[in-house]
Recover the amino acids of this structure.
C-alpha cells in the first residue's frame, strides 16, 4: 500500500518535470446558462471537469486534473476570449389566430430582434414558423411558412440582407405547448428566430 | 401522398435558401478577425475575412498577433488566440431535430468554445481532438491550450 503511494507520488513528480503539452479548462458559462462538463480522454484515463475553472493538463502524454490560478487562466486565454463573437440569440414572436400578423406585444418585441441584428458586423438569421393544432396539416404547413415569410419580409423592408435570412415552416409539428388536435393555443402560433 | 410532398417542400425551401445547390453547405461563418488569420482549404491558404463562410475540412490559422471568432450553424462559437491552428474535421447538423456531430482538431494555440445545439441535443457528439487527448463536451463553455512543438 505505502509502496504504491510512493510510486504514484514519484511518477507525479516525474511528470511535473515534463513540459506541459495541453491545458483544459471549464469556463463559467456566458449569459447565465448552466455549466455542463467536459471529459478529457488520453487513451488510458478519462478526466471529467464539471466546475467553473476546473482544470486538467497533459504532461508526457498523460492527462490529469491540475490546479491553475484564475489569473493565469485569464492571461492564457485573454486573446481567444476577446475574439469571441457576439453569442447567438433566440427570439419568439406570436401571431394572431389564423394570420401572419404579429400580436401587438410581439410587434414591440420585433424591434428587439432588429436591434440585436444591428449590433453584429455580420449576421445570419433563421426564422421558423409554427402554428397551433386548429385546422388540417396542409393548412397549417402553409400558415407556418407564411408567418416565417412575413417576418423575413419585414426584416428586409427594415433594411436587412435577404440572403442572410433563411425561413422554414413546421406547421403544427413541434408544439411549444403540447395540446390535443384542433386546440387553439396562442403560444403555439409563433416564429422562432435565431440571430447569430 | 400529397401531404408528404407538402412537408418535403417545406424542408426543401429551408435548405435551398441557405446555400446554392452545387456548393457543399457552409458549416460556420467568420464573425471576428484581429491581426493575421487565414483559412486553409484544399491546400490553398487565403486570408480570413469577416463574413466568409467555412466548410467542413477547412483549417483556421492565426498569426503571432492574430485571433479569430467563428459561429457554427448549430450556434457553437469558437474563438482562437494567436499562433493557433484548428482543423474543422467533421461536422453534421440537422436543423430539424438539432442533432449532429462535430470533431475539431486542435493542433496548436488557444481556443475558447461556447457549445451549441449539437452538444446540447446529442451528448458526446461534440469532440475536440488534441495531440494528447480527446475532449468530449456536455453543453458548456470551456477553453483549450495546445502548446507548440518544443
Amino acid at each position: 500500500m505505502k509502496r504504491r503511494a510512493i510510486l504514484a507520488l514519484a511518477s507525479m513528480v516525474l511528470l511535473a518535470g515534463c513540459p506541459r503539452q495541453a491545458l483544459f479548462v471549464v469556463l463559467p458559462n456566458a449569459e447565465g446558462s448552466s455549466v455542463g462538463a467536459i471529459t478529457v480522454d488520453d487513451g488510458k484515463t478519462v478526466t471529467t471537469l464539471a466546475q467553473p475553472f476546473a482544470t486538467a493538463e497533459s504532461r508526457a502524454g498523460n492527462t490529469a486534473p491540475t490546479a491553475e490560478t484564475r489569473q493565469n487562466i485569464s492571461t492564457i486565454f485573454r486573446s481567444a476570449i476577446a475574439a469571441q463573437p457576439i453569442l447567438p440569440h433566440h427570439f419568439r414572436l406570436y401571431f394572431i389566430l389564423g394570420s401572419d400578423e404579429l400580436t401587438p406585444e410581439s410587434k414591440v418585441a420585433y424591434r428587439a430582434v432588429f436591434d440585436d441584428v444591428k449590433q453584429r458586423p455580420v449576421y445570419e438569421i433563421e426564422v421558423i414558423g409554427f402554428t397551433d393544432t386548429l385546422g388540417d396539416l396542409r393548412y397549417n404547413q402553409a400558415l407556418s411558412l407564411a408567418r416565417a415569410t412575413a417576418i423575413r419580409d419585414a426584416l428586409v423592408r427594415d433594411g436587412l440582407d435577404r440572403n442572410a435570412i433563411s425561413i422554414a415552416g413546421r406547421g403544427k409539428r413541434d408544439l411549444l405547448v403540447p395540446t390535443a388536435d384542433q386546440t387553439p393555443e396562442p403560444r403555439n402560433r409563433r416564429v422562432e428566430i435565431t440571430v447569430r | 401522398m400529397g401531404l408528404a410532398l407538402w412537408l418535403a417542400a417545406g424542408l426543401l425551401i429551408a435548405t435551398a435558401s441557405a446555400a446554392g445547390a452545387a456548393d457543399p453547405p457552409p458549416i460556420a461563418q467568420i464573425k471576428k478577425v484581429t491581426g493575421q488569420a487565414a483559412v486553409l482549404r484544399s491546400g490553398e491558404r487565403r486570408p480570413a475575412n469577416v463574413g466568409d463562410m467555412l466548410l467542413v475540412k477547412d483549417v483556421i490559422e492565426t498569426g503571432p498577433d492574430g485571433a479569430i471568432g467563428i459561429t457554427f450553424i448549430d450556434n457553437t462559437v469558437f474563438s482562437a488566440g494567436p499562433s493557433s491552428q484548428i482543423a474543422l474535421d467533421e461536422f453534421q447538423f440537422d436543423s430539424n431535430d438539432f442533432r449532429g456531430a462535430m470533431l475539431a482538431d486542435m493542433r496548436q494555440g488557444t481556443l475558447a468554445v461556447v457549445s451549441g445545439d449539437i452538444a446540447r441535443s446529442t451528448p458526446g457528439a461534440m469532440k475536440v481532438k488534441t495531440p494528447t487527448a480527446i475532449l468530449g463536451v456536455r453543453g458548456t463553455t470551456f477553453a483549450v491550450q495546445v502548446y507548440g512543438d518544443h
User: Anything to note?
Assistant: Chain A has five helices and nine strands. Helices of chain A lie at 2-17, 70-76, 78-82, 104-118, 137-157. The longest strand of chain A covers residues 20-27. The beta strands of chain A are 20-27, 37-41, 46-49, 55-59, 62-66, 89-94, 125-129, 165-169, 190-195.
